[in-house]
Amino acid sequence: MVRRHPQVPPIEKDAPAGWYEGSPTPGQRGPAVLLGHVTVGDFGEGVFYRLAQLAPGAQIKVTRADGKQAIFTVQRSAEVPKDRFPRQEVYEDTDKPELRLIICGGPYDRKAHSYPDNIVVFATLTASG
Known about the structure:
The chain is mainly beta. The protein contains one helix and six strands.
């Protein structure tokens, strides 16, 4: 099943990553989807400022609302034009716990106040507790 497009977190100081409520909780079966900003306007670095630097094998620790931690290992990342966003690949159900982290990417367009691309990091659960 392909899910609808999630809302982007607000651009404000110390804005956390947003969890797409249409996706599983991180650590549950299926692709948990988190969105964040690279930068947040005049406030500087966003929660996912260094996300594009994650390489395969890197670990991502997600602290859930219940206080438990889910640890994911990066499998790959992809930069894709926003008008060709791979919705099915990002949101489609999987048979194991996975994670998708999404940010804007590509060169910033000052005139449009936006980025032309998205960077998507694909990771799988490797530990929890």
